Amino acid sequence: MWPDDRVVRFVSENFVPARVHVKDDAKEFQRYGTRYNAQWTPTILELDSDGVERHRIEGFLPADDFLAQLMLGRAHMAFKEGQWAEAEKRFREIGEKLPNSDAAPEALYWAGVARYKASGDGAALKETARAFTRQFQDSTWAKKASIWK
Amino acid sequence: MKIDFRHDVDQVLKDAKTQKKSVLLDFSAAPM
């Protein structure tokens, strides 16, 4: 997943990247592994600028799914900061660029929520529920959105 | 292309706060 050029570009453009190796950085691993409850490797965390965990990826993923997870985390970060328009844009980019990734259904769901948060208009949720009748019908996220119909 | 990972996590967190940037923290056991 790390050698993929798209992943390298995305990380370089959006994060300060740090690595704690179980053996080679043993003291750091003990300290930060405890602080962030990293019980397994690989565990990749997206932290905000205050060091607060905003997204967690555990276990290996192929490049497309890994990139989608990184994008999802960055979108959730904007969402948690109340940047609704930016969050929606980031969520929708996942569906546009990586529609077959495992993160795509979750991204569609949260894009709808972000639009609703920005507008207060329930139509954003209804439209999202309708979108789930056209794609990702068997996903957990389609079930979650089904109540919005 | 490769990612220039840093290992000085304390300093990374300080730099991220100053620069208002997010941090990607990778806990790894892969051969380096």
How would you describe the overall organization of this protein?
- The complex is a heterodimer of chains A (149) and B (32).
- Chain A is 58% helix and 12% strand.
- By secondary structure, chain A is an alpha+beta fold.
- The radius of gyration of chain A is 17 Å and the shape is elongated.
- With 32 residues, chain B is of the alpha+beta class.
- Chain B has one helix spanning 9-19; one strand at 22-28.
- Chain B is elongated and about 30 Å long.
- The interface between A and B is medium-sized, with 41 and 27 residues.
pLDDT < 50 stretches of chain B? none
What is the terminal-to-terminal distance of chain B? 16 Å
For the biggest sheet of chain A, the summary is:
2 strands, antiparallel
Shape of chain B: elongated
Outline of chain A: elongated
* SSE string of chain B, helices as H and strands as E: HE
Kindly state the percentage of residues in helix of chain B: 25-40%
Mean pLDDT of chain A: 96
Task: Identify the notable features of this structure and list them briefly.
heterodimer, A: 149 residues, alpha+beta, two-stranded antiparallel ribbon, 12% strand, B: 32 residues, 1 helix, 22% strand
